[in-house]
Amino acid sequence: MNVELVVLDMAGTTVRDDGAVEAAFSAALEAVGVPADSPEREDVDAYVRDTMGQSKIEVFRALFPAEGVAEKANRVFESAFASRAIEVAEPLPGAEEAIDKLRAQGRRVCLSTGFSARTRDALLARLGWTELADLVVCPADAGGRGRPFPDMVLTAVLRLGITDVRAVAVAGDTGFDMLTGRRAGASVAAGVLTGAHDEATLRAHGATHVLGSVAELPGVLER
């Protein structure tokens, strides 16, 4: 089936954040009483690594079920990430060219992120990407649920008038990107090795392809 829509993750897939995500998680954990030297920090850090790609508020809700704690952690995370990302974020090599090639092939392109709308917009402005893709979505655009739910991909399908969910390719650097694509019915779930997870993790979560970077994707879809 011809791929009509390509949904691309941002941080780790199309965007290099130079450690901004990890630094923001650290700031958030400090803010809710889990400093780097606390006994539980190693387990918490492992959970954060394993759930990279998932909606950040869902990660914090799983870690901190007490009322208000997850929301506080998420606010600190978003603020810390936005401040650092504005300084350091840049396109991963070949990302902009890949998006241009995909659109030149006649495909629609949607960027997706688990960040808030405010952080998403700050990141797009930093990169000069406000007009790069056909659509950019975050959990708030899809009813509030981020990865691994299929909602952001399906929102893009609806907004861009795609004829069939099988005519979708999803690309990302985490297992949750792969799981999201498969749950949404995408025929291609392409993992890239420029971010959080390795090939084994990407395959275990349903990757149909594993690529060195997103720069390879236009060629894969063209073939």
Automatic annotation (TrEMBL):
GO terms for biological process: DNA repair. Pfam families: Hydrolase (PF00702). One of its GO terms (cellular component) is cytosol. It comes from the Bacteria. One of its GO terms (molecular function) is phosphoglycolate phosphatase activity. InterPro entries: HAD-like_hydrolase_sf (IPR050155), HAD-like_sf (IPR036412), HAD_sf (IPR023214), PhnX-like (IPR022468). NCBIfam families: PhnX-like. This is Phosphonatase-like hydrolase.
